[in-house]
Every structure is written in structure tokens, then in C-alpha cells.
Write a structure and sequence with these properties.
The chain has 358 residues and is of the alpha/beta class. The protein contains 13 helices and 12 strands. The strands form 2 sheets. The chain has a 6-stranded parallel β-sheet with strand order 3-2-1-4-5-6, with helices on both faces. The protein has a 6-stranded mixed β-sheet with strand order 7-8-9-10-12-11. The structure holds guanosine-5'-monophosphate and manganese (II) ion (MN). Manganese (II) ion (MN) binds next to loops.
Length: 358
């Protein structure tokens, strides 16, 4: 009975296609999106453990570095970063028979590493949960209703009958992805199937409290102070719009000894203010001349529509992103305009004449 909670992602024809792609493949590369998060890494490393078990030559290639708080994931130290080792990454992609595209729906989500994928002769399988997948894979297992790619990987391994043979390492990777993509099970997390999966992962010996601490209680003192500074000095709270904007410049990053991953979670903080429906974070990239935009919302406010219309991006209903090539000052102005444009949706009813409280 409980097993029927799980989706069977592959119909008969797709199952056959899966085997046609995976069975003969000797060299397999697992990839995830640029700026890999817990879900991209968790899905790749869980698949790594699975495919190793099948006796494959498997490598994980990520476009660039993952945050420090994920470095403990089993076998994360084996990940090859294309940004740091471009020649090795390219050779692996050229030699691969099969590439898995995990947690991304379009080659451009690999950013500078996209040519490595597009020029590789390997066949491709996508496993992903983003809307509007592009057609660049022979087999695409895409479900925008899944809260994480790890959730889909779990269901696939279960359907393939492989789950019973997996160990605690793979289970830990899957749990980490499910946890991080749902804000530790606080959004997109009401699907009962998710808790069936978690029960199965716990039966493998996963220590969920330890994983939580390793991911969320892993900050430096400087990062904590940066958070205080942003909330106290930088947050622009637009109460009449139920929205907030947070900005972070390179100068500020230098001041607070910013390390990769330090900005993680900041965008969620304004949503803790009662009634807030949208939070937008604008952060100068540490390398490129652009501003990284992150959007988070509660209930039905469509971040992805705002990200598409204003921020050259997209994503999920409640979590989206994009980028802007302009000054921070201009980006803030644009964000205010975007918020004004979506005022009606933010307030949840037709807007009365706006009462500015600035
Ligand atoms: P984050 O704010 O964590 O960078 O991104 C949140 C979500 O927004 C990601 O999981 C991804 O779905 C989406 N996203 C972020 N950046 C982009 C982008 O440039 N383009 C698109 N289409 N989606 C993005
Ligand atoms: Mn994901």
C-alpha cells in the first residue's frame, strides 16, 4: 500500500530506453548545475554510489565549486570542478558514453561549462524537477511537481529495484538533497510520499539531525555578523507591498570575509516577517560583472513569472533566480518597479491607491 505513494517515472518503453542507455555504458559522467546546491550534489553523489555498485567507471563533474557546508557529503572530495580543472573535465566528457544531467533543465545552467556538455559525443539522461525542460537529452525524466531531484532519483532507484542494495552513504546524499530543496521540510514538503522516502532513508541508517547540523549550523562568526548587518542596515522592507529587498555588494563581502555559500539562506529571512510574501536578494557576483538575483515567496506568489519578466531567469513558483547586468543602484530601482508591477498579486486582491510609507 505504502509503495503506491511513489511515482513510477518510467513507463515500459522508457524503462527499456533506460537500460539501453545505462547497461552498455562503461564511462559515465554525472553533472549538476553551476553553483551546485545540496540537491544537485546529493543527486549526483547518490547516482555515483549506485552506478559504482553496478561496476561502472563513474565521475562527477560540476561546473564550479559547491559551498563549504556540503563538503562532508560522502565522496564529495572526488568531484571534479570544470572551473578548476578544465582539461580533465573536458577529457572526461569526451570519453564518456553517457552523461547524466541532474537538477538542471537546460545546458545554459552549466554556464561556462555548457560547451563541455554540448560538444561531448555522449548520450544524455536528464533527471530534474524544473519547469520547461529543454530538449537536449535522449531520455528526460522531468517532474516539476517533485520538491527535489533527489526525490525523483529515489523513486527511480526504487522502481529499478536498486534501493534495497544501496548503503547509508547514498541514502545520506538523497536525504541531504530533499532537505536542502525544501528548506528542511518547510516548503514544497507536504507530499506524503516524501515521508515514505524519508522513512526508508532512515532505515538505511541516515542520521538526519547530524545532516541538519552539518548543513545549517556550519557558519563562521563573520557570516553571522554579515547576516546581522544585512538585516539591520540593508533590508528594504516594503510593508505596503508585502515584499522586501536585500542587497549585498562586493565591498561588503570583503568586509565580512565572504566565502562561497555565505549568502545561502539570506533571501529567506525577510519571509519570517509576518505577512511578507516576496523576498528579493540582489548580490554582486564575486567574479563576473553581474548581479545575482534570488527570489523567494510564500503561497501562490509566482517568483518564476517575476524572474522571467524582470531578471532574465526563471525557476519554481516559490523559489527563482536570474541575473542583471547593471549597477546595484539600477538593479534596486528595477526591483522596486517589478514589485510595483506585481502589487496586485502580492496583496492578493486588487490594489487600492498605494499608500507609500517610505
Ligand atoms: P537561487 O536563488 O537559489 O539561485 O535559485 C533558486 C531557483 O531558481 C533554482 O533552483 C533554479 O530553479 C532557479 N534559477 C536560479 N537562477 C536561474 C536562472 O538564471 N535561470 C532560470 N531559468 N532559473 C534559475
Ligand atoms: Mn533542485
Amino acid at each position: 500500500m505504502t509503495e503506491s505513494l511513489l511515482k513510477e517515472y518510467l513507463d515500459e518503453a522508457q524503462l527499456e530506453q533506460w537500460h539501453q542507455l545505462v547497461d552498455p555504458a562503461a564511462h559515465i559522467v554525472l553533472t549538476g548545475h553551476a553553483g551546485p546546491d545540496g540537491d544537485a550534489l546529493g543527486a549526483a553523489l547518490a547516482m555515483y554510489h549506485y552506478l559504482k555498485m553496478l561496476g561502472k567507471d563513474v565521475r562527477v563533474v560540476m561546473p564550479n565549486l559547491y559551498p563549504d557546508f556540503l563538503a562532508w557529503l560522502p565522496e564529495a572530495n572526488r568531484i571534479i570542478l570544470a572551473h578548476a580543472r578544465p582539461d580533465e573535465a573536458q577529457a572526461l566528457m569526451q570519453e564518456a558514453d553517457l552523461v547524466f544531467c541532474l537538477d538542471y533543465n537546460a545546458p545554459n545552467r552549466l554556464e561556462e561549462a555548457a560547451p563541455l556538455l554540448l560538444q561531448s559525443p555522449a548520450r544524455r539522461i536528464m533527471i530534474d524537477h524544473h519547469l520547461k525542460p529543454e530538449r537536449f537529452c535522449q531520455l528526460a525524466i522531468s517532474d516539476a511537481r517533485a520538491s527535489s531531484t533527489c526525490e525523483i532519483v529515489f523513486s527511480l532507484l526504487w522502481q529499478l529495484g536498486a534501493f534495497s542494495q544501496l548503503g547509508r552513504e547514498a541514502a545520506t546524499c538523497l536525504y541531504c538533497g530533499m532537505m536542502t530543496d525544501t528548506g528542511a521540510f518547510t516548503y514544497n514538503s507536504s507530499n506524503p510520499a516524501l515521508y515514505f522516502m524519508i522513512a526508508q532513508l532512515l532505515l538505511k541508517g541516515v542520521d538526519k539531525d547530524r545532516i541538519y547540523r552539518r548543513v545549517y549550523h556550519n557558519y563562521s562568526e563573520k557570516r553571522m555578523r554579515l547576516m546581522g548587518y544585512l538585516l539591520y542596515e540593508k533590508m528594504e522592507y516594503l510593508g505596503h507591498r508585502r515584499a522586501a529587498i536585500i542587497t549585498l555588494t562586493r565591498d561588503e563581502m570583503t568586509r565580512f570575509a565572504f566565502r562561497k555559500g555565505d549568502a545561502e539562506g539570506f533571501v529567506n529571512l525577510p519571509l519570517e516577517i509576518k505577512g511578507t510574501r516576496l523576498s528579493v536578494s540582489l548580490r554582486e557576483d564575486t567574479e563576473k560583472a553581474l548581479i545575482r538575483v534570488s527570489l523567494r515567496s510564500t503561497d501562490t506568489f509566482p517568483c518564476n513569472r517575476m524572474a522571467e519578466k524582470y531578471f532574465n531567469g526563471g525557476g519554481h513558483l516559490n523559489a527563482s533566480g536570474g541575473s542583471l547586468q547593471m549597477s546595484m543602484e539600477e538593479a534596486v530601482k528595477l526591483t522596486r518597479r517589478a514589485i510595483d508591477d506585481f502589487a496586485e498579486m502580492l496583496l492578493g486582491h486588487p490594489v487600492a491607491p498605494v499608500q507609500h510609507n517610505e
